[in-house]
Structure formats: C-alpha cells, structure tokens
Amino acid sequence: MKKYLIILSGGMDSVTLLHDWEADIALAVTFDYGSNHAKREIAMAAANCEKLGIEHIVIPLAFMHDYFKSSLISGAEAIPEGHYADENMKSTVVPFRNGIMLAVAVGLAESRGLEGVLIANHAGDHTIYPDCRPEFIDAVRRSALAGTFSRVEIISPYCGITKTQIAARGAEIGVDYALTYSCYKGSEKHCGKCGTCVERKEAFRDAGVQDPTDYED
Amino acid sequence: MKKYLIILSGGMDSVTLLHDWEADIALAVTFDYGSNHAKREIAMAAANCEKLGIEHIVIPLAFMHDYFKSSLISGAEAIPEGHYADENMKSTVVPFRNGIMLAVAVGLAESRGLEGVLIANHAGDHTIYPDCRPEFIDAVRRSALAGTFSRVEIISPYCGITKTQIAARGAEIGVDYALTYSCYKGSEKHCGKCGTCVERKEAFRDAGVQDPTDYED
Q: Who contacts A167 (Cβ-Cβ below 8 Å, separation ≥6)?
C-alpha cells in the first residue's frame, strides 16, 4: 500500500524526491500561491506525475497572493539577482510558506488515510528560509503527530544534504531534469541570474551532472 | 501599538477573546472552509469587529471543502446530535483545521509585522479535537517561533479554562452573546441538539449567565 503524500513544486528537489520515493507515494500535491513562476512549475509537477502514474492535485492558495508580502509573488521585475544565500534574497521569502503547505498537506493526508507527508527542503535552504531549518521541521513534525488522530508523520529526507547531493542522487536514479523548473522570474527560459537559477547551475556543475537547462544568459 | 492577529470564527469563544484582548488586536481573520454554518458565523465575526473598530478579513480555504472529509462541511443532515464529547461527534472533525488556520495566521502576522496570533481553543475541546490540545498548541507555537524571521508567537489564553469559564468572563466584560453563532447545522435558528448547541446551552447554564439564544427545540 502506498502511504505517503508529497509536496511537489516542480523544481529540482521535490521532483528528485518524487522519483526517489516513488514506490511509496500515493498522492502529489502542488500548491499554487500565485508566485511568478507557478504556471511553469505546476506544468513540470504534472508532467512528472503523469510519467510515473501518480495522482496529482493542485491546491490554490489565492489568499497568499492577496495578503502576503514577498517579491516572489509581486512580478518578475521585483526578483533580485545574485547568489541564493545573499541577504537581498530575503525579499523572496513567502512568510511561513512551508508551515502553511505542511499544515494543509497533513490535514489532507489524514483525510485520505495516508501515513505521512514528504517534503524536499534541503541543507542549502537553511541560511535564508527559517521554515526550512531542522528545528522548524522538528517542531512542525511534533505538531502533526499531536494534532491528528492518526498521528500523521512529516518526513524530510533531504534535510541534511545539499542541492548538489540531490542532483547527484537524481542523476543516479535517472531523473530527467529537463522536466523541472526553478527560475523565480517565471519566463519561458530560465533567466540564469536569480538566486534559484544560480543555485541550480552550481548544483549541476558541482555534482558533475549535465545541465539540460536552456538559460537566457 | 496593537500587535496581535486573532483567529475569529464568530462563535462564543473567539468573540469573547476578541473583546477580552481588544486593546492589543490589530487584525481579526475568519477562515471560510465551506462549513455548513460558515455564512452565519462570518456575519457574527464581522458584526463584532465593526462594533469594536477592528479590521476584519475573511480568508477562503475552498480546497478544504473540495478535498477534506468531515460532516461539518458535508451538509446539515450529516451532523450528529448529542453531547459534544461523544464519540460520534468525531465525524465533525475537520482534519488538522487548527494547524491550517494557525499556519496561515502566522504567515499573515509576519507579513503585517504583527508579533503574535491569538487562538481561542479551550479545555473542553481537548477530548475530541487533537488539534486543540496543549501539546499540539505547544508544538505549533515552537514551529512558528522557529519558522519565522520575526519569531511570531502563538498565544492561547483559554487553553486551560472551560467554555463555562469563558461565558462567565464574557458576561463580566459585557460581551453580547446574541452576536455569536455556534450551531453546526447552520440554520437561521440554533438547532439546540447538535454537540456545539448542547455545549453552548450548558456553558450559559453552568456559568449562571442568561442565554440570549433562540433555539429551534
């Protein structure tokens, strides 16, 4: 019996996790919070699920676009360029995004009778995003165990590894990274300059994995 | 400076908390998850905020109606009758509802530069709802502190008291309970028979507070 739900954005990390834990995944959920790159990410999430025969649903969180402040949901021109770990990248933070996605996923897992929720946060996220850090994941995991009848688990298999190690793992299990999208600007081609594009390039380069991405620069 | 956001349903508990902590509340948020009684509860939430001059927003969580299993969102005829603490009342549980509302509220509080989130869960909720218990509140509180830059607090002032004590507190500070709605069936008049109506009656009776509710039975 497949027993997990995965939070799937359509980026490199969660698409790798989808393939990595495929045998145990019953449902993939993509959250549409109105980000600049939502449309392209969602298309990639759907394509991977179709390929693997995994049920995929998209949950709209329109209120985040209406009420939350973040350059990630304010249009491409607001996205800063530079390295992912730089201070100016903080404007791309969507407040408590992982907290919100995990909470919805936990409720949905309990509704479906599933045992746990998979999330693909990784060690490289920790410097910028507080809701990617191990202490956050640990606390929210305990809140899910305490707050559900069926004691839904939260599992974060990549929490201790880097994006480079994720890319290496993906190459090993045959993930097609042409079917992933990362750029925060959301244009047809990856810009190659925003934090997440820079991080994407570095991960392929450092892992010695061929980068199939067609960058604008 | 007012510094808190309150999760306000429009029922007795959160309306009492709204009046109780009024001086420190900058924003009241009602979540519309498509429950049978949403329309009447929201109207009560709005009426109390207007009276107190507190900004009020309604955040639709339509996906809960579409994807979650609960008699609370399946129509009035699915609502069991009897005492709130009875086993059959479990069907009214919306999986991880407080987890979801708290996560969205925490993100919104950080977006607005507010220090904390108020929630009116109370000791009487604990028997049925896992996401009302102190160990849940404690874990989710730590997840909010760890998962936000500004270390948003979660405050649950009624976690250790009963609904009867809430009614007594409300009477003391002059809350008009005619401006609250509880019934899970969602008709114009309170049915008087569902778990939350029975609990409402008992709270007024045990607190020695006059019950202004016009029950159907």
A: A12, A16, A177, A203, A204, A206, A207, A209
- Enumerate chain B positions whose Cβ falls within 8 A of a Cβ in A: 57, 59-64, 67-70, 90, 93-100, 102-104, 106-108, 110-111, 130-131, 133, 135-136, 139-140, 142-149, 152
Q: Tell me the C-alpha distance between A142 and B7, whole Å.
A: 22
Phi, psi for B115 (deg, rounded to 5): -85, -25
Q: What is the pLDDT of residues A117-171, one digit of tens each?
A: 999 999 877 667 888 889 999 999 999 999 999 999 999 999 999 999 999 999 9
- Out of B61, B93, B147, closest to residue A131 by CB: B147
CA torsion sign for A132, A138, A139, A140 is positive
DSSP letter for A203, please: H
Determine phi and psi for A111, rounding to 5 degrees: -60, -35
Spatial separation of the C-alpha atoms in residues A90 and B151, rounded to whole Å = 15
A179 near A19, Cβ under 8 Å?
A: no
